[in-house]
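Internal tracking record. Fields below are filled automatically when a chain is submitted to the structure queue. Please do not edit lines marked as system-generated. If the sequence contains nonstandard residues, flag them in the REMARKS field before resubmitting.
Queue: standard
Priority: normal
Entity type: single polypeptide chain
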Amino acid sequence: MKPSEFAKILQRYVRPQTFPLGFKMVRDTSDVPERAKRFSNITLCQAYNLARVYRWTVFIDGNTVCPIGVIAYGFAEPDELYESGELAVAGGYAEDIEVGKKFEESIMRLNYGEFEGVLVFPLERDEAEPDFAVIHGMPAQILRLVHAVLHDTGGALETRILGRASCSEYLEAFVEKRPRFVLTCYGERVFGLTQDYEVSFAFPWEMADKIAQNLEKTHRKGIRYPVPFSGLRSEPVLPEKYAESLENIRKSDHV
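SYSTEM-GENERATED OUTPUT FOLLOWS
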């Protein structure tokens, strides 16, 4: 399935307010399209949020400024401060450096130098076949993607929540070849301007066909977004005078 075809299906059944993104890991920068925008001195989460809000194709590499992001994506090796756990303490997440080390150890990391960068683009632009995709939306919208994942398997979507480094949580979908519900992290909200009401969902691109098919199947069975509130089909309780007036109207000759 072409990325643009999948984007149309998402628009039909999920209606995200921003552009769903494809992430393509890049081993050779000669493969990066000329029109891809490159930035330095911004965070990785700022860069991919530019792609999902501005509809830009963006190339991200070690020139971004967040040490957590560049280390997670293998664009740099961790320094002593990172390994010590002090970053998590300085960020306010960890009580002390021993706790901080556990935070850093929990973050998915690609091998240093494995990739030169990552191309991030709105799926509708068909820049490449993604390695993984990320969709931001309101919880009820992301719920539809959970329905699509589970429709032909049952069970539960298992996930873990870090509370920071959601960029690395997206990577887990790529590395582990499984979908991830992501409670988008504090840093992405501070720097990438992801909104309070937004959460996100990542999945390996190999699952695109399954998710698309199951979105359609569950929609046909009545599981939809916008959610079809059952209360709209219920008889309302009107104020007493409204009911009296309606009764009078019905008894008149004007109905």
